[in-house]
Design brief:
It contains 14 helices and 15 strands. By secondary structure, it is an alpha/beta fold. It folds into two domains: about 5-165 and about 345-360, Rossmann fold; about 165-345, Rossmann fold (3-Layer(aba) Sandwich). The strands form three sheets. The protein has a seven-stranded parallel β-sheet with strand order 3-2-1-4-5-6-9, sandwiched between helices. Helix 7 links the parallel strand 10 and strand 11 (about 215-220). Helix 1 (about 15-25) packs across helix 14 (about 345-360) and helix 3 (about 60-75) crosses helix 4.
Length: about 375
């Protein structure tokens, strides 16, 4: 089957970049519209993936719509795959009176509503035939949407995990002494954005449930240094000297590799944590809450530990479980690495995405109704 796909994104991350390359290598006639300032832009270029430079700064970007419409009219595309809301809204507006099948991507649960005009300009638009969800939890969220008689067609959302490869994570574990962490410390890492839904405050609270003479230290990676509320909370902790904030780091995976455990205590809207995937790829045992896609990623007592959300005592108990059982921690880390290899690999993502394209094109071109 011959068909042409146009992917529209921004600064694509590594899994997204490798998806484009993998699809091209699998025989898909693919072009990518993306931001030329992206970290992996040159990777696309040297892999001979056709690239069109475009920066979409707003959900309604007149110059971007004009350029996209010119692209759509320049050749026939069978599928347009939009990887973020700006891409979707601008592309849908640019496609007026142009027959084409749309696919969108969604990485988090939440912020979609039948009452929201913005949602109708993206995932709920009648031209969107499939929504590729990063996890079953995101898919379930879409299927839970309703307003009186309005519900999403159950065939519209589809789960395809964002794939990784162990070969991407070969960096030497970082030297944590630069953060004044003692060499004998049991280090619990965290990496994420400065957002309440990440549950960072429950990491800090968990220290109150640890022994006062513990050698457990916390390494908090990300743009957290200006969070005054977090600093006040840490300063009130009995283990305040055991907290280390790194600020934004480009070597976050190598830091995760140097940790004894890695935690993501999310309280909502967690699709599939990249930070946890990177830690698992290095064999660092994860501790996650049973929120969103995290229980899909981590199997409790097999490839990590899963705890209830907003429960610092449970977090502390999980930390001490790994701290006091080094053999168990090692086994969980090994299993975590194996789980990424077998269940969350880029090869499967490419295969499933290509299959979805072909199944979609075998059907007629009528929009999927609600």
């Amino acid at each position: 089957m011959k068909y042409r796909v146009l992917c529209i994104t921004d600064r694509s991350d590594l899994p997204e970049t490798e998806l484009f390359i993998g699809l091209k290598n699998a025989g898909v006639d693919i072009e990518v519209v993306c931001n030329p300032t992206g970290k992996h832009y040159n990777r696309l270029k040297i892999s001979d993936v056709p690239v069109i430079d475009l920066i979409l700064s707003y959900r309604v970007n007149p110059s971007g719509i004009k350029k996209l419409r010119h692209i759509f009219n320049s050749k026939k595309y069978d599928i347009i795959y939009c990887f973020n809301n700006k891409a979707a809204s601008n592309a849908l507006l640019a496609s007026f009176n142009i027959p084409v099948t749309f696919i969108t991507y969604r990485g988090v649960a939440g912020n979609i509503s039948f009452l929201s005009p913005a949602s109708w300009m993206t995932h709920l638009n009648h031209k969107v035939k499939k929504i590729i969800c990063v996890s079953d939890s995101v898919k379930s969220y879409f299927l839970s949407l309703k307003f009186f008689w309005l519900k999403l067609n159950p065939e519209k959302p589809v789960t395809i995990y964002k794939g990784h490869e162990l070969s991407w994570y070969q960096s030497k574990p970082a030297d944590l002494s630069k953060f004044n962490i003692p060499p004998d410390a049991f280090v619990v890492g965290f990496a994420g954005r400065n957002r309440p839904n990440k549950g960072i405050k429950f990491i800090v609270d968990s220290a109150r449930w640890l022994p006062r003479d513990t050698t457990v230290h916390y390494l908090l990676i990300g743009k957290l240094t200006k969070n005054k509320k977090l600093h006040r909370q840490i300063n009130k902790s009995p283990l305040r000297k055991n907290f280390h904030l790194t600020g934004f780091r480009v070597d976050a995976p190598a830091l995760a590799a140097a940790c004894n455990a890695f935690i993501m205590p999310s309280v909502k809207k967690e699709g599939l944590s990249r930070a946890i995937i990177e830690a698992m790829a290095y064999g660092t045992p994860p501790i996650v809450t049973n929120i969103g896609g995290q229980p899909e990623l981590v199997v409790h007592q097999e490839s990590g530990l899963v705890v209830p959300p907003k429960n610092p005592a449970a977090i502390a108990d999980a930390i001490m479980n790994l701290y006091g059982n080094p053999k168990k921690a090692k086994k969980l880390g090994e299993n975590a690495r194996e789980r990424i290899y077998t269940h969350f690999n880029s090869r499967t993502t490419v295969k499933k995405t290509k299959h979805l394209f072909e199944q979609l094109l075998k059907t007629d071109n009528t929009p999927i109704a609600f």
